[in-house]
Specification:
The chain contains eleven helices and 14 strands. By secondary structure, the protein is an alpha+beta fold. It folds into three domains: about 80 residues, Ubiquitin-like (UB roll) (Roll); about 100 residues, [2Fe-2S]-binding domain (DNA polymerase, domain 1); about 210 residues, START domain (Alpha-D-Glucose-1,6-Bisphosphate, Chain A, domain 4, 2-Layer Sandwich). The strands form three sheets. A seven-stranded antiparallel sheet has the order 8-14-13-12-11-10-9. The C terminus is likely disordered.
C-alpha cells in the first residue's frame, strides 16, 4: 500500500506514490535522483544525510517521507543563492575543510544552521554543535576554522540578507550547549527468548531439546535487510533436521563461523568475513528456538564487529521441507540490521550476492557432512576465496548489464 506524497523540494513542487516506511533520504535519492544527500549509518548517528525541512536541519535517514507532506525540503543541490551557504562553500574550500566529501553535504547544512542561530559562537560551541556530524578525514580543524571565518566576516561586515535569516530566531544560551550531558553509548545487549528452554549438550557436543519450543520474539523490523534462500539435499527430512539443530556441526559448514560456548539458552560465537575491501569479525550471543513439529528453527542474536565496532542484530530462520523419502529442501530466511560504519553496505546488491554465494557454499558443506558423517571435515570444508568471489560477482553483474543493454 502506498501513499500519495506532495511536497516542495528545492522550491519545486513534486508528487510521488511512496510506501509509508520510506525515509526521506531514500525518497530524495531514489524518487528525485538528488544523490547529493548521502546515506551513511541510516540510524541518525553520522549526520551525512542532514537536509533542511522548512528551514530546519533534520536527519533524512530517520525522517519518514510521508511526514513531510506539504512541507519544504532543501538539499545540497538547492542552496544556489543562499547567502550563508555561498560564504560557507568558499570558506570550506579555502580552509581545506573537506577531503573525501562524503560528510560534506550534511556538514554544510549543520554549519549553515550554526551561522544563523549562534552569531557569536566560539570554537568550543562550534565543536559541540558539530558533535552530531561525523567526519573520518579532516580531524574537524578545517571545518571549525571555516565556520569561525564566516562568523568573523559577518561580524566585521554584516550582511542584510543573512540578518534577515537570523530574524525571529531565539537567543541561544551558549552555556547550556556546553553543559549538555554526554550520552553514553549503549552497549548492545544480549537478546533472550522468553519462552525458550535451555539447550542440552550431549557428550558428542550435539545439541537437542527435549520438547518443542514456543516461537522466539522477532527481533527484526521492517527496515532490516531480508534475504530468502533455499537448497535441496539428497537425504530424508529427519536426518537433515537432526543435523540442522546440531549447532557445532552447522558452524563447521558455514565459512568463517565458530561457536565458542553453549551455556543454558545462550550460544556464544562469531563470524569472520572478508569481501574485497570489506572485512568484519563479529562476536556475539544468540538464542535458538525450535519447533519439532514443523521442523523449524530460529536463531536470534546480536553481535559487534571487532574491527569497526559496527553492531548487528537480527535472526536466521530455517525450515526443512520433505520432498520425498530421500530428499529434503532447506528454506533459509536471513533478516539483519547494522549500525555503525558497515551499515552503508548492508543493503548493497553486491553484498546480497555475496550472501547468496555463501549460502551455496554452506549447502555444499552440509551435503558433504551428511554424506560422510564418519569423517571430520573441519579442515576439508569448502571455504570462501574472497578475491575470486569478489571479482566473480562483479563479472556476473557486468554480464547481466551487457545482456540487458543488448535487448531490443
Amino acid at each position: 500500500m502506498t501513499n500519495r506524497l506532495s511536497l516542495k523540494i528545492n522550491d519545486r513542487q513534486v508528487v510521488h506514490e511512496v510506501f509509508p516506511r520510506m525515509h526521506l533520504g531514500d525518497f530524495l535519492r531514489e524518487k528525485e535522483n538528488l544523490t547529493g544527500t548521502h546515506l551513511g549509518c541510516e540510524h541518525g548517528v553520522c549526520g551525512a544525510c542532514v537536509v533542511l525541512l522548512d528551514g530546519q536541519p533534520v536527519r533524512s535517514c530517520i525522517t519518514y517521507a510521508v511526514a513531510c507532506e506539504g512541507r519544504s525540503v532543501t538539499t545540497i543541490e538547492g542552496y544556489d543563492g543562499d547567502p550563508v551557504m555561498n560564504r560557507l562553500r568558499v570558506a570550506f574550500s579555502s580552509h581545506h575543510a573537506l577531503q573525501c566529501g562524503y560528510c560534506t553535504p550534511g556538514m554544510l547544512a549543520t554549519a549553515r544552521d550554526i551561522v544563523i542561530r549562534i552569531p557569536n559562537a566560539s570554537e568550543r560551541i562550534i565543536r559541540a554543535e558539530l558533535s552530531g556530524n561525523l567526519c573520518r578525514c579532516t580531524g574537524y580543524v578545517g571545518i571549525v576554522e571555516a565556520i569561525l571565518s564566516v562568523l568573523e566576516e559577518l561580524r566585521v561586515k554584516p550582511d542584510p540578507s543573512v540578518e534577515a535569516l537570523r530574524q525571529g530566531r531565539k537567543p541561544i544560551d551558549q552555556s547550556a550547549i556546553l553543559d549538555r550531558p554526554a550520552v553514553a553509548e549503549k552497549v548492545f545487549q544480549n537478546f533472550e527468548a522468553g519462552n525458550a528452554q535451555p539447550l542440552q549438550v550431549g557428550a558428542s557436543g550435539q545439541t537437542h531439546k527435549s520438547t518443542a519450543l514456543k516461537s522466539t520474539p522477532n527481533l527484526t523490523n521492517q527496515n532490516n535487510t531480508e534475504i530468502l534462500e533455499n537448497f535441496d539435499v539428497p537425504f530424508p527430512v529427519t536426518r537433515v533436521w537432526a543435523f540442522m539443530i546440531d549447532l557445532p556441526a552447522i558452524a563447521r559448514c558455514l565459512p568463517g563461523a565458530f561457536i565458542s560456548s553453549i551455556e543454558a539458552e545462550q550460544v556464544k560465537g562469531g563470524l569472520s568475513l572478508k569481501f574485497g575491501p570489506m572485512q568484519a569479525a563479529f562476536d556475539g550471543t544468540a538464542t535458538l528456538s525450535i519447533d519439532q513439529n514443523t521442523h523449524t528453527a530460529t536463531l536470534n542474536g546480536a553481535g559487534q564487529d571487532r574491527l569497526s565496532n559496527s553492531r548487528a542484530t537480527g535472526n536466521i530462520s530455517y525450515r526443512i521441507e520433505s520432498l520425498g523419502d530421500q530428499r529434503s529442501r532447506v528454506h533459509i530466511t536471513m533478516s539483519y540490521g547494522l549500525q555503525g560504519p558497515l551499515a552503508q553496505f548492508s543493503r548493497s546488491g553486491i553484498v546480497k550476492d555475496f550472501v547468496r554465494r555463501m549460502m551455496k557454499i554452506f549447502a555444499e558443506n552440509i551435503e558433504q557432512s551428511l554424506t560422510h558423517p564418519e569423517i571430520d571435515l573441519t579442515n576439508k570444508r569448502k571455504n570462501i576465496r574472497p578475491i575470486a568471489l569478489f571479482f566473480g560477482i562483479i563479472w556476473d553483474r557486468l554480464l547481466t548489464l551487457l545482456s540487458f543493454k543488448s535487448k531490443p
